[in-house]
Design brief:
With 90 residues, this protein is an all-alpha fold. The chain has one domain (3-88). The chain has 3 helices and no strands. Helix 1 runs antiparallel to helix 2. The longest helix is centred in the N-terminal third of the chain and has 26 residues, at 3-28. The radius of gyration is 15 Å and the shape is elongated. The chain starts with a helix and ends with a helix.
Amino acid sequence: MDARYFEMLRRIMELEFITLELNLFLDTHPNDERALCDFKAAQEALMQAKHEFERAFHPLLNFGLGHVENGWNWICDPWPWEINWYQRRG
């Protein structure tokens, strides 16, 4: 499998974590302008990363929201829990 696939998927997971953590922080610190700016930047980066991944490989969701060009091709790749991320470090 293309190494770019794993790099892009890992980046999406990192950005999802960052966005979620900032969201939780903003729940208790709604007036923190820096956190809000960081949240908006992370959210934008996440949406861009997901779009690039889906254009290059396959949809991340099957709720009719992802772009499907080659049928049900996402079932051919490993699921995130099937990837040994420790072996992929490099």
